[in-house]
Amino acid sequence: MFLMIGISQGRKDISSDQLVICGQCGQYGRYQVFMTFSQLLLFFIPCFRWGRKYYVQMSCCGTVYELDPAVGEEISRGSGREIRQQDLTLVSGGRTARMIRRCPACGYQTDEDFDFCPKCGERLSRE
Questions:
Q1: Which of 3, 60, 61, 83 has the fewest other C-beta atoms within 10 Å?
Q2: How many domains does the chain have?
Q3: DSSP assignment of the chain
Q4: Which domain holds residue 46?
Q5: What does the pLDDT look like over 12-25, one tens digit per residue?
């Protein structure tokens, strides 16, 4: 008799459409909710899951938060519950908002890493 058993890590994306202003970069973004878990596989068929953790990733800058398990469970059931800031614990910061540079001569603004204005050629200043 031959028995195939394995353990794997999994991720399940959970639909959420809550629009917020990011606390890390200050831009508008959406919460992208997902669940991670470990699972027992029997002949490549998932049989049992454990170690569920819920996370939220910001669509604007990639910042990752751990979500309160009770709130994550409600959202995964499709309750449409709103995620509050006190439900989140920062795990890793994403990229920060870029520094805006402004041309003192013509007023052109850009977040690109230019030293000189592409419109008039003057040195750009930081705001």
A1: 3
A2: 2
A3: ----EEEEEEEEEE----EEE-TTT-SEEEEEEEEEEEEEEETTEEEEEEEEEEEEEETTT--EEEEPHHHHHHHHTT--PPPPGGGEEEEE--PPPPPPEE-TTT--EE-S--SB-TTT-PBPEE-
A4: 5-92
A5: 999 887 899 888 88
